[in-house]
Specification:
alpha+beta, 6 helices
């Protein structure tokens, strides 16, 4: 995996916040837990389905997703580059953000590092965690929890934004709600079995397959999604923040 570069290059009239992944060369030969988080973050950025500002506040820099704290220093999925060296694990002083060859994103001209200290603890995804009060941690993020948390918050944010658009696309909203509910039910079903949730275990692999099968997460504005539960009807994906910007531009032109 070399010279990765992900940048949301929407037209300037739609761009509220710029998030660009900086080029880097992957040096790890084996799969690691942080790679699945990195891949999903890149997928969200490239999707253009929610505004960069909402993506940043709801997922990338949100205590509900993950909150790292060392004294008065805070980090999340993203941490400001100049303080990452102070965010270490309590027990063995591992860096929470990659000390060499970090995964760097530029957010409105400021550099942030993606969390890389993601534990291989055999833990089921906790679907209730987003509804609980966030607690600061300084040990390691649990990969299955993180995967579910960021997927859940992405769906919730997209549904909320779609619902606030003046001319609501109710068919699209219903489709996204249905796919989201099916994902939650599938994860609950996995949790009912005695699976191995280690990153090399069958529980983790099945969770990755569930996420990979989510149509919305692979979409861009204009993509056609097939509703297999309703005689193969379809919906077209829209970007709610672009719709708002276009409406504002139309009003200004009057």
């Amino acid at each position: 995996m070399k010279n990765i570069h992900v940048c949301t290059a929407q037209q300037s009239q739609y761009l509220d916040m710029k998030i660009c992944k900086q080029p880097r060369t992957e040096v790890t030969k084996k799969a690691t837990t942080r790679m699945v988080i990195e891949s999903l973050v890149d997928q969200f950025i490239a999707s253009n389905l929610i505004s960069n500002e909402r993506l940043f506040e709801q997922i990338l820099y949100n205590k509900d997703i993950i909150w790292i704290q060392n004294d008065n220093i805070n980090g999340h999925l993203f941490a400001k580059a100049d303080i990452t060296g102070q965010l270490k694990t309590k027990t063995n002083s591992f860096m929470m953000y990659m000390p060499t060859n970090p995964i760097v994103y530029e957010v409105n001209g400021e550099y942030y590092h993606l969390i890389t200290r993601i534990d291989s603890t055999r833990a089921k995804p906790n679907l209730e965690r987003l509804s609980q009060a966030p607690k600061p941690i300084l040990s390691a993020a649990r990969v299955n929890d993180l995967l579910c948390s960021i997927v859940m918050r992405f769906y919730e944010t997209y549904i909320e934004d779609l619902s606030q658009v003046a001319n609501k696309n109710k068919q699209l909203i219903n489709f996204v709600k249905q796919e989201y509910q099916q994902f939650l039910e599938a994860v609950k079903e996995l949790n009912d079995f005695h699976l191995n949730w280690h990153p090399r275990g069958n529980g983790h692999e099945l969770l990755l397959k569930l996420i990979d099968n989510l149509q919305l997460l692979k979409s861009r504005p204009g993509k056609v999604l097939i509703d297999f539960s309703n005689s193969h009807s379809y919906v077209v994906v829209e970007s709610p923040y672009r719709m708002v910007k276009q409406a504002q531009k139309a009003v200004q032109a009057l």
